[in-house]
Structures are given as C-alpha cells and as structure tokens.
Amino acid sequence: MKTDLHIHTNQSDGSLKVEEILQISSLKGMDIVAITDHETTSGVTKAQNIAPDYGIRIIPGLELNTYYKNQEIHLLGYYRDINNDYLQEKLQQIRKERTAVTKLMLGKLKDLGLVLEWQEIENTASFEGVVSKSHIIYAIWNKTERDQNLTINWDNLASCLRPGGTAYIPYEGNPFPDAVDLILETGGLPVLAHPGLIDQSLTEDLLSYKPIGIEVYYGYWAQREEKITYFEELSRKYRTLATGGSDYHGFFSQVEIGEVSVPEKCVLNLMEYLQID
C-alpha cells in the first residue's frame, strides 16, 4: 500500500492543481494520498470528486500554522469528513488573519528595496485561499521570468522570510493548544508536523498537551534515517499514532510524492482512528 499523507496543491501554497497532483500520484503508483493544504479543505473536495478516475483513495486533511512559546509550529489534521460548519468558519477566519500578516511582510520587503505590488502576489494564490509568504516567492519568480535582467538572491530572500528573518512576521492568532482543540472538536486527529524542523526541546511538551499524532516519516531532515528512528521511539513512548509524507508543494519540492516510505500499519491505524472503511 503506497501512501503519502502530506501533499499541498495550489489551493494553498502548492504550485500544482489538484488534477495534476492526482496524475502524478497515479504515475507513482500511489494507493492513498492525503491533501493537506494550509487552512483550507477546498482541494480535498476537488480531489474526492475525481480520485476514483485515478484509482486513488483520499484521506481528508489540512495543515494549520500555529504558535507556541515564540515559535511557529505546524499542525496537520486528518478527518473522515471535513464538512463541519464550525471548522470551515474557523479556517476562513485564520486565512484572513494570515493573509493580513503576509501583507505586513510585503511591507518589510519593500522597505528593504523590493519592488513588488500586492496584486502580483494575490494573483498567484487561489481565489479564497490564504495568501502566504510562499506566494511572495511565486510572485517574485514570475517577475524574474518576465524580466531576464532581474536577478534575485534566492537564499537571501528565503532567509528574510524565515522565522527570525528581517521580513518575517509571526502569525500568533492560532495558538497551538487552540489548534489542537479545534481539530479534536471537529472530529479530526491532530498530528504534529515535521517535528525535526522545530526546537527539539519543545517536541515532548507539545505531545504532552493532549493525545495527538506525530509525523515520523519525513524527507526534508538532515540525517533522515536517524531522525526517523528517534521519532519512532518518541511515538512509542507517547503511544501516539505515527504518520508521514512528502510535504510535496510542486515543481520546487526536493522530495517527490511517494518518496518517503510510510509503513502500512501507520495508515491502517490512522484509518481505524478516523473510522474510515
């Protein structure tokens, strides 16, 4: 059973359409994929409508930006059914708040000399989706494609937009405990996303709040196998569900769909928890 439980589409900060994601997944021989766009489930609905044509099962999902002890923490949520009015209202609110933060980040970049207008960024995002710092990068990429004389130091730009960077502004409107509670209250399973990318001193603290899952099988870490072994042990210690996936965002992703091997037992445990037949 080939599974990828962490995939983004252009409904949030991915570069590919839902149809393109499923085409690639089919070519890769995937059996089950989870669409986990940031703060929106519109990609899930699109995927569910066409997945049978590709012989692929969809596990509904999402990813939330949260904040805990001055750090940005990402939280995945997996569902049997995402058609929950309260969930959708909260997601809409978070999208508006995160988009407002992105506007402030653009202001900082302009102060640093970047010539870019908000409309150029907004044009790279989905109609109702969150506009994030990824869309700033997409807009700048589009600008360089149109103007071959325009050169960008991409490493410097990425540094500016990372936590602690000169243009970075944290989104503090969705504290980690509130995000966990939201997913649990609306019938989902919260899963700590890519824990190897956050301050390790916080990981056990985050897992101690309430019973949540942890993304063990992930590809962007240095010393990938050592990190996976460490988080497998942590998952056993806290008796929590383990998940995994590529965190695929499209053409610029370093890890391809299906490249991270997710044990079948993890998928079966997740489906049992969600009561998915």
From TrEMBL:
Transmembrane segments: none annotated. GO terms for molecular function: 5'-3' DNA exonuclease activity; 5'-3' RNA exonuclease activity. Gene3D superfamilies: 1.10.150.650, Metal-dependent hydrolases. Residues 3-68 form the Polymerase/histidinol phosphatase N-terminal domain. It comes from the Bacteria. It comes from Dehalobacter restrictus. CDD domains: PHP_HisPPase_AMP. SUPFAM superfamilies: PHP domain-like. InterPro entries: PHP_dom, PHP_domain, Pol/His_phosphatase_N, Pol/histidinol_Pase-like. This is PHP domain-containing protein.
